[in-house]
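Incident review: delayed structure delivery

Summary: a single-chain prediction request sat in the queue longer than the usual turnaround. Root cause was a stuck worker, restarted by the on-call engineer. No data loss occurred. The affected request and its eventual output are reproduced below so the record is complete for anyone auditing the incident later.

Affected input:
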Amino acid sequence: MHFDHAGIATDDAKRLAELFGDLCGLPVAHEESFEGMTVIFLDSGTGYFELLEPEAEGAIATYLDRNGPGIHHLALATEDIEGALDRAAELGVERIDEAPRPGAWGHDVAFLHPRSTGGILIEFVEH
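Output delivered after worker restart:
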């Protein structure tokens, strides 16, 4: 496994993408509307910033209401997402997703509950 991206909840993904582009030279690698969100991936060269702006009620809108803008999750890329989920279960880590599901950019994803991972929402992503 290796670091894939940091998911960042924001009220204005386009504005934040422009800021990170101007400030850090991060180009937009991918943009889509997915499950009631605008999702913009910025390429850092060693991973991505995934900017998540809600278009409707859902997990990101709820997160913003509770916590305000900021890091929502950290994602690790794996070549075997089902194996990664099995290993998490063997270690007693609470899984939000028992099986992979479709994620942004056409990837399979699965999340681990922050209660079991030091307060951090962890996403496994298989490209």
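Verification: The chain has a mean pLDDT of 97.
Action items: add queue-age alerting; document worker restart procedure.
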